[in-house]
Write a structure and sequence with these properties.
single chain; Rossmann fold; 8 helices
């Protein structure tokens, strides 16, 4: 049995440090092939059923949200920021580069936590990491950022309800999403959209439109109540 004892070394061996296509100011460790890396991780750990290596790629939602933050640094400047389900840490890095007072990146994948630390160091920013599910937490974050999280029905519903409660309580919430399976766009307003270059092996396309969103006012109320019982262009945040 071969065990990965040094996750940072594994990440360095199986990725390349590259600028993010739509956010070239930031470089992260990226893999060339998702399936190959996934299989290699399972082989080295001698286990099956591991989560996909989301941490090794710059996904469309994350690229859009990171681009928006860098272009609109006032969104996070001076704020306590959480990047939820951070993956590579791309969005967290963008927030740190844009003047956030503190940035915390959360992910339940231990590989992601090490990838975030590596990528933060490369970009010379300081990011705290949390390796736990934060849905339902009431920590005093001023801004919560989340990208590419609406892949599963149950997760999408729970996260949307939590974000609605946070928004109703005064937290600014921004979501990056290109139209994932369980993203309910009827509950969100578009803030900005981008046509992004993406990996065909990941998105089944060479270019994909991805948007930055915020919860509609009525969704903030109805989603919270339910839990307890096509956009283009850009518009400013209030």
């Amino acid at each position: 049995m071969s065990m990965i004892l040094d996750r940072p070394a594994f990440i360095r061996r199986n990725t390349r440090l590259l600028p993010v296509p739509w956010v070239p100011e930031i470089s992260i460790h990226m893999a060339d092939d998702a399936t190959e890396l996934w299989q290699k991780t399972e082989a080295d750990l001698d286990v099956t059923g591991l989560p996909p290596p989301f941490w090794a790629f710059a996904w469309a939602g994350g690229q859009a949200l990171a681009r928006y933050i860098l272009d609109h640094p006032e969104t996070v400047r001076g704020a306590r920021v959480l990047d939820f389900a951070s993956g590579s840490g791309l969005v967290a890095i963008a927030a740190a580069c844009s003047g956030a007072a503190t940035v915390t990146a959360s992910d339940i994948d231990p590989f992601a936590l090490d990838a975030i630390a590596l990528n933060a160091a490369v970009n010379r920013v300081e990011i705290g990491v949390l390796g736990e599910n934060l849905v339902g937490r009431t920590d005093p974050w001023d801004v919560i950022l989340a990208a590419d999280i609406f892949y599963e029905r149950d997760t999408a519903g729970a996260v949307t309800a939590w974000l609605a409660r946070r928004t109703a309580g005064g937290t600014r919430v921004l979501v990056g999403d290109p139209g994932r399976s369980y993203f309910d766009r009827t509950k969100f307003d578009g803030v900005a959209s981008y046509d992004l270059p993406v990996m065909r092996s990941l998105e089944d396309a060479d270019c994909r439109r991805s948007s930055v969103w915020r919860l509609k006012a009525e969704a903030r109320i109805s989603t919270c109540e339910n839990h307890d019982a096509g956009f283009s262009g850009a518009q400013p945040l209030p």
